[in-house]
Structure formats: C-alpha cells, structure tokens
Design brief:
The protein is an all-alpha fold. The protein is built from 10 helices and no strands. Helices cover about 65% and strands about 0% of the residues. The longest helix has 30 residues.
Length: about 260
C-alpha cells in the first residue's frame, strides 16, 4: 500500500510513456468512459432534466473528491510546506474540476455555459490527459496512485462530455459563447501570472514537458512570449472550430 500511494517515493521504475502498460491502461479507461456515457446517456435521454442532472452531480462529486485526496496525499508526502502551490487547478483539464460542478449544481446561463465548456473540452482533455500525458507516465508507475487518479479524473471529464451529448443536455447557444471564451481566458491569465510567481508550468504555458505541446515549443525555440501565445491561440481556435462544426451540422440537419 505504501508503494501504491507513493509514500516515501515510488520504488518501482516507471514503465514509460507510450509503453504497452501505459497504452493498455488508458485504452481500458477510454473504453469504460465511452461505454458508461452511451449507456447512461441513452437510458436518460427521455428522462426529466432533474434525473439527467443526477449523473453530473455524481460525476462532480467523484472528480473533485478524487482530486482533493490526491492533493492532500501529495502535500503529505512532500517535505515542502508550500507543495499545495504546485497542485492548484490551473491546467486545462483541471478547469473541469470547477465547470462540471457548476454544470451540475447551477442554473440558467451559467449552467448552460458550463455544459458547453465540459462538452467542448471534456473529451479533448480525456484524450490528451491519458494518451498524451508524457509528463506523468514518464515519472510515475502506471499502476500508482498518481497516474490512476489522473487517468480516472480525465476519464470522468470525457464521460461528462459524451454524456451531455447522448442524454440530450446540449446547450451550445450563441449567446453563451462569450462566457465560454471568458472561462478559458480567465484561467489562462491566472495560470500565466502564477507561473511567473512560483516558476511553474500551469496550462503548459512555459514549456511542453513531454506533451504534444512540445511540438510548438520546439517550433519557436521555447520563445517566452511566442510559445504561450501559440498555446492560448490553439485553445481559442479549438473552441471556435468546435462551435463552427456544431452549428454547421445543426444547420444541415434542420434543412434535411
């Protein structure tokens, strides 16, 4: 149990990024994610909004509960009393720790915008945070607490994204687009400021750290201004592209 939770540091050597152990584990998570999203989503498609929302409530409690336990354990295992500063929810995937509960417990436009954000970034974060998480799987054993919680929380975010689709909870109203952009923009500004204060890499705005962002980091030679601007531009471009594809498909269906 000490080894699983990494108490005193992991003794096992990490299997490595893109090892068969890494790929097998995250593929299993993705299959379970898709299965439960389709099953629960289709089972509640014609249910009341309150009934549909109960699934998001459970997902919100699970994802935040697991992350809180992970942060507490990480701080306990660290000799640095300021370790909590390096566990703030300021990564792109970490935003779901806030937007999923907002989507589950709030009402009105705020709920709609949160649903949009979870839908847009949930599945992307699930894929990037499992198959693309080179910084995690190169540092920790696959079947260790850190990687297992990280994999499960990313899968929960992806599950919520797909569940919103299959249960018919999609909002995607044009009037809420500024809120969606605002949520991301606010987190990027906060993450950039915190990175400068504590010399960290939230939102991967400083370097790629073994993730696909390394492609752009290397492309501009790690330029301290161009690289973070490219990362933020990619986020915004992805939101714009997602909305564009969604409205295009919606128009095509309305005409047919």
């Amino acid at each position: 149990m000490r080894e699983f939770f990494g108490i005193g540091g992991y003794q096992r050597e990490p299997e490595g990024y893109l090892s068969w152990q890494h790929l097998t584990f995250v593929t299993l998570l993705m299959l379970l994610m898709v299965f439960f999203a389709i099953w629960l989503g289709r089972a509640r498609k014609n249910a009341s909004e309150k009934n549909k929302n109960r699934v998001l409530v459970v997902a919100a409690l699970l994802i935040d509960g697991l992350e809180i336990v992970k942060i507490i354990l990480g701080c306990v295992n660290s000799s640095d009393p300021m370790a909590w500063l390096y566990n703030l929810p300021l990564f792109l995937c970490s935003i779901q720790l806030i937007t999923i509960p907002v989507a589950a417990f709030c009402r009105g436009r705020l709920k709609e915008a949160a649903l949009d954000f979870v839908l847009i970034f949930g599945i992307l974060g699930a894929v990037l945070g499992t198959y693309g998480a080179g910084q995690n799987y190169a540092a920790y054993p696959v079947l260790g607490f850190d990687n297992m919680v990280s994999g499960v929380t990313h899968a929960i975010a992806g599950f919520c994204s797909l569940y919103i689709v299959f249960s018919g909870m999609i909002s995607m109203k044009k009037r809420n687009m500024p809120i969606t952009f605002g949520i991301l923009g606010s987190f990027c500004v906060i993450a950039f400021a915190v990175n400068r204060l504590i010399d960290y890499n939230y939102m991967f705005l400083v370097r790629g750290d073994g993730t696909p962002y390394d492609i752009f980091y290397n492309l501009v030679g790690g330029h301290p201004v161009l690289y973070p601007l490219i990362v933020v531009a990619l986020f915004l471009l992805y939101i714009f592209a997602f909305y564009s594809v969604y409205f295009y498909i919606k128009r095509r269906r309305s005409r047919s």
